[in-house]
Amino acid sequence: MPDTSMSARERKTKERIRVLEIDHIECETCRTSIVERKIPPCHSPSLPGLAIWKPLPADHQSARGHFVYGFPLRMDKLERVSARMGDTRSLRFDLVQQAVLVSTRLEAMTQWKHALYFEYGKPDAQSEEEGMAEYNDFYKMRVVPLLAMGCTASKKLYHRRPTPEQMEVFEDYLGEARWFETPETKGKYPRRSFKGVIPACSYAL
């Protein structure tokens, strides 16, 4: 129950202090939303020192699946990234193998303590327009290949983020990241899969 013994001024001061405690978030609208226990409408902020992402979709709580934040992929896109990195072995790999190769290189370049995780998301209008969606026999629906960084399945996965500097490198090579709903329902989503991927910085390349 709210503390009715506090005056309006005291409550306002207390709320303001709570806003200041998260002043690493530059957007005041987002800070106020967090204090009021609402979903920030402008961004998807995280802990101090970590990248700020796009806002979560408005329906993320009522949606059947969780949402992952990642980069949509297509083979020609991965081949261009590999060529830019000086790797010409792409002709021997399929899309998944090529994605793993690219992600390993990027993890080593940035020294991110986590690993980019290959998975699939439900297509949005942009990915359909860009020809990144494909029918998948396992899911029995059209999906988009992704290199994901974090997920709404838990607070830990939500805050599984690179620094702003590392994020800048990822986006320089892979383009703009955004949220995608998982084809699995929330109850069937394999959140443990994120833990099974070893980041490149933990072993010698």
Describe the largest sheet. Answer: 5 strands, antiparallel
User: Helical content, roughly?
Assistant: 25-40%
Overall form: globular
- Structural class designation: alpha+beta
- Written as H for each helix and E for each strand, in order along the chain, the element string is HHEHHEHEEHHE
User: Which residues form runs of ≥5 with pLDDT under 50?
Assistant: none
How many domains, as an integer?
2
Ends distance = 56 Å
* Radius of gyration, whole Å: 19 Å
E-strand count: 5
Q: Determine the number of helices (DSSP H or I, runs of at least 4 residues).
A: 7
Description:
By secondary structure, the chain is α+β, with helices and mostly antiparallel strands. The chain folds into two domains: 1-43, no CATH class; 47-202, no CATH class. Helices cover 33% and strands 14% of the residues. It has seven helices and five strands. It has helices spanning 8-20, 28-35, 75-84, 95-110, 125-129, 155-158, 164-174; strands at residues 67-72, 117-121, 134-136, 141-151, 178-181. Strands 1, 2, 3, 4 and 5 form a five-stranded antiparallel β-sheet that branches. A hairpin with a 4-residue loop joins strand 3 and strand 4. The longest helix has 16 residues, at 95-110. The protein is globular and about 70 Å long. The relative contact order is 0.17. The model has no long low-confidence stretch (mean pLDDT 86).
